[in-house]
Amino acid sequence: MAANIKMTDIDNAKLEEVMQVYGKEPDKDKLMQLVMVLKDTKLFVPAMSNPKKGGFQPYVIKNQAGDLYMPAYTSIKKFPQNEKYQGMLKLPYRQCASMLLDHPTLVQGIALNPYADNLILKTQMLELTREVDAKIRENPPKAYQVKTDDFRMVMRHNAEFHLIPQKLYEEKMDFIQNLSAETLCGLYKVPYEQVGQEKVFPFTKDQFEIMELNVREDLHLVQVMLPAEFLYRTNCRELYILWNPQTGRIGCYIVEKSAEPEEKLFQLISVKEDNTWEKLEDAPSEGNVMNRVMELFEAAQQQA
Predict the structure, then answer these.
(1) Interval 50-81: pLDDT, tens
(2) According to the model, what pLDDT value does residue 262 have?
(3) Which residue ranges in the chain fall short of pLDDT 50?
């Protein structure tokens, strides 16, 4: 793995347990258990630079028969020790499956932990997980709205649109270098503390996922996946901090859950140094947000 990449691990203990059971006795019941666990999973996907698109594209590997597969890992400990990657993306399994099913190539599926478990998910398996997922989505459980929803929404909005950008632009590289799941969780707690409600703070540091990439000498990026729980309108799903080490310029972009019913579900927002923000466009799909914010950041630098 490349030495210039740091990230928070994924807790895929349940998936790894089911993979072991299915690998030893791959019957129909264990197959469905694997499908049910996979659909809500995130995976590490090795990626290489793609200059034409200005971002990253997944690696592929070839087995002894010459078949091509996209490698994916369930946790950091499953990375091969001697393998070097330019980058590592953290993607929902759904996104990984869509990359292969919606854009057919010679790649025949996903190899889960290819240097350890080597569980092969061929396209038929990817299609099965998609079918099961679609049936579940057709009949989702009813959400129970509690009285504290509005309070949580406001507290979260204060952290995401005010406190975090303010500290970023005031402290600049000191803030970025000290950024961790623990420090972020602490910042989300501040609005609760300010109104004497820290006892009902709903998040833990394990709900914040951070990945840092040194894309080029003049472009570094931090992706922060924010808690999926208690994600209300005007709250943020993702946060991106970009900076140019050569010029010191910093950019901050967030993916906000829209407050307007007529708009797309998520909006891409630029948060500026004067603590104002600009709604840029509808947010692309989760796997494409990183490439888009890099494009926007570079365009902003050229206009400056």
Answers:
(1) 766 556 788 899 888 888 999 999 999 998 87
(2) 56
(3) 1-4, 143-146
Tell me, yes or no, if the pTM score tops 0.90.
Answer: no
CB-count burial class (<10 Å; 0-12, 13-18, 19+) for 300: middle
Using an 8 Å Cβ cutoff, are 35 and 129 in contact? yes
Structure-block tokens of residue 213: 């990439």
Specify whether the CB–CB gap between 276 and 252 falls below 8 A. no
- With a CB cutoff of 8 Å and minimum separation 6, the contacts of 40 are 93
Q: Please state, in angstroms and rounded to a whole number, the distance separating the CA atoms of residues 238 and 209.
A: 10
Contact criterion met (CB below 8 Å) for 252 and 271: yes
Contacts of 81 (CB under 8 A, 6+ apart): none
Residue tagged 């490698």 (tokens)? 71
**Chain segment 84-115, per-residue pLDDT in tens:** 777 888 899 999 999 899 888 889 999 999 98
Which residues, in sequence order, are bridge partners of residue 250?
A: 243
- Residue 54 is predicted with a pLDDT of 58
Residue 243, CB half-sphere, CA atoms under 13 Å: how many? 17
Q: Are 121 and 109 in contact (CB under 8 A)?
A: yes
pLDDT given at position 168: 94
Measured CA to CA, the distance from residue 99 to residue 110 in angstroms comes to: 10
Q: 291 Cβ partners below 8 Å, 6+ apart?
A: 53, 54, 55, 56
Report the candidate in 216, 186, 222 with the shortest Cα–Cα distance to residue 201.
186
